[in-house]
Design the sequence.
């Protein structure tokens, strides 16, 4: 079983890339990531040297469930390294790792020369593709770039055109989920000459307030600002965006948002993504997670009888339809595994106060009144033992 694929004609040894973020902020880190087994990287976003940026400290805040980071807020800006640093380093990496994919993420100023010069520089330096950061939701929009571009279809089309007319390598537009219609922005990118799309960048957020000082997190000398949310909590938003792009555009898709393991990646690819990018999980767990991502994907593909990623891609997107067309005639109700049920009563409370008053305890076990049950599934999610469940439903298209 091999996991080879290609993206805009560039071969990939596996479908796992590092996203533009702290893990790709230096040449030394990218070199170690390649050694660990990542198939490619998107560099931390590179800007022209004359654009000055300064990061706030601290700039991260996390929501945790036990030890696990489930949501991550940041208001970090783009790369602090200059063009000379990147130029030397990218050349070295291309020489040392000819089979890996190096995408250079760029962000110009709000004029044509700035974007065109940066794109031409990146192509000469050895970038195999460009990713245009039209989607950073914090800091940069105040300067008229980042998500300020990706939230406006005319500007998206215009800047994509400036870049695509300047270079011959593939141009990937990285989209923001912070828009009413991501498909409209994607179409504008395509009209501007984009060869592929990447999504999602972070979700604009405010992850909490310190109730002692009454200051939103992360606190910077008594103040804060809005940030971008990433990690497992944003996966449902990423999956939604990728499914919409897969259904309504015909461009190749580089997917990200909450990929922590092989199964998250497979969900994205089943919805039409060509491959995935990872940021937050690598920030908290390190480059070595790639080993299990590769072995888990291979085992899963074998178990499911898929020979290649191309066979598998998009299998789940075909199961998406309109609410109108869903079959509502079913009289399915949950089944109960009475051995697993401990009689804790959580399902009774949830069904009583959030559902249809259909569950009661009978001899210390959950029991469903079929005539009252509306089949909503709430009880299956509150049961700590997974003793209530719907039978697996498989229907071929
Ligand atoms: C600390 C941090 C810095 C980031 N910097 C960039 C950046 O420079 N350019 C960019 O396009 N995206 C940037 N991102 C967004 C990620 O590339 C990615 O789109 C997002 O985090 C969702 O993926 P994840 O859930 O795997 O983290 C950054 C994300 C984080 C958490």
Sequence:
């Amino acid at each position: 079983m091999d996991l080879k694929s290609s993206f805009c004609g560039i071969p990939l040894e596996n479908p796992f890339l590092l996203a533009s973020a702290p893990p790709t902020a230096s040449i030394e880190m990218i070199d170690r990531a390649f050694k660990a087994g990542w198939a490619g990287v998107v560099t931390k976003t590179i800007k022209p040297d004359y654009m000055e940026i300064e990061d706030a400290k601290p700039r991260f805040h996390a929501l945790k469930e036990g030890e696990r980071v489930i949501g991550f807020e940041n208001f970090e800006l783009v790369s602090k390294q200059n063009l000379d640093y990147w130029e030397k380093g990218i050349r070295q990496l291309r020489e040392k790792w000819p089979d890996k994919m190096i995408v250079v993420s760029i962000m110009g100023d709000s004029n044509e020369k700035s974007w065109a010069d940066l794109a031409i520089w990146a192509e000469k330096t050895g970038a195999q593709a460009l990713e245009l950061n039209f989607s950073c939701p914090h800091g940069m929009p105040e300067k008229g770039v980042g998500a300020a571009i990706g939230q406006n279809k005319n500007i998206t089309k215009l800047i994509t055109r400036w870049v695509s007319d300047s270079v011959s390598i593939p141009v990937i537009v990285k989209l923001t989920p912070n828009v009413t219609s991501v498909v409209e922005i994607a179409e504008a990118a395509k009209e501007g000459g984009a060869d592929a799309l990447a999504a999602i960048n972070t979700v604009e957020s405010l992850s909490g307030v310190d109730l002692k000082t009454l200051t939103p997190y992360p606190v910077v000398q008594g103040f804060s600002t809005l940030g971008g949310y990433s990690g497992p909590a944003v996966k449902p938003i990423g999956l939604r965006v990728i499914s919409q792009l897969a259904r309504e555009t015909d461009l190749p898709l580089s997917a990200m948002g909450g990929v922590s393991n092989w199964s998250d990646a497979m969900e994205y690819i089943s919805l039409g993504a060509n491959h995935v990018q990872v940021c937050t999980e690598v920030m908290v767990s390190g480059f070595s997670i790639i080993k299990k991502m590769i072995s888990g994907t291979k085992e899963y593909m074998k178990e499911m009888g898929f020979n290649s990623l191309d066979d598998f891609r998009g299998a789940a997107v075909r199961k998406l339809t309109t609410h109108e067309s869903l079959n509502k005639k079913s009289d399915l109700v949950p089944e109960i595994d009475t051995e697993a049920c401990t009689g804790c009563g959580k399902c009774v409370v949830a069904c009583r106060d959030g559902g249809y008053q259909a569950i009661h305890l009978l001899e210390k076990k959950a029991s469903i009144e079929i005539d009252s049950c509306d089949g909503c599934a709430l009880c299956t999610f509150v049961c700590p033992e997974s003793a209530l469940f719907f039978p697996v439903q498989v229907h071929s298209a």
Remarks:
- The chain has a mean pLDDT of 96.
- Residues 335-389 form a domain with the Alpha-Beta Plaits fold (CATH 3.30.70.20).
- Residues 289-304 form the longest helix (16 residues).
- The two ends are 27 Å apart (CA to CA).
